[in-house]
Amino acid sequence: MKKFSLFGVIFLFLFPLMVVAQVGGGNIQFKSKAGDVVFSHESHVSTGAKCVDCHPKPFLTTEKRKKVTMAQMAKGESCGKCHNGKTAFSVKSKADCKTCHQK
Question: What is the mean pLDDT of the chain?
Fold first, then answer.
């Protein structure tokens, strides 16, 4: 019984670490005339963003994603929800285009 208890204690401490290590979802690439955008889940989660900040609203899953325009983002939709110049750099700033758009 002691072996099971020790395993149970180890599991209870390590399981949350295993779950946290899996958070991220990888990278998603978006094609754009202004230069492709690679969205990194890891870089966003590392800033303290939580999955529920984006999912299921304003973003669905990659299978159900919809095309988003810069005009929509400038209105605070999609990426513009956080990239508003207050929470994160603004999607309206021309100086920040290269942060997301890669040629």
Answer: 79
- CB distance 90 to 96 below 8 Å: yes
SS3 of residue 35 by DSSP = coil
Q: How far apart are CA 25 and CA 1, in angstroms?
A: 38
Residues β-bridged to residue 24: none
Q: Name the residue with tokens 């390590």.
A: 14
Q: Considering only 35-44, 64-73, 81-90, which range has the smallest mean pLDDT?
A: 64-73
Lowest pLDDT segment from 10-24, 35-49, 69-83 = 10-24
Question: b/e for 13-39, b at 16 or more Cβ within 10 A?
Answer: eeeeeeeeeeeebeeeeeeeeeeeeeb
> Which residues, at least 6 apart from 24, have a Cβ–Cβ distance to it below 8 Å?
41, 42, 45
Cα 94 vs. chain centroid, distance in angstroms?
22
> Which of left, alpha, beta for 76 (phi over 0: left; psi -120 to 50: alpha)?
left
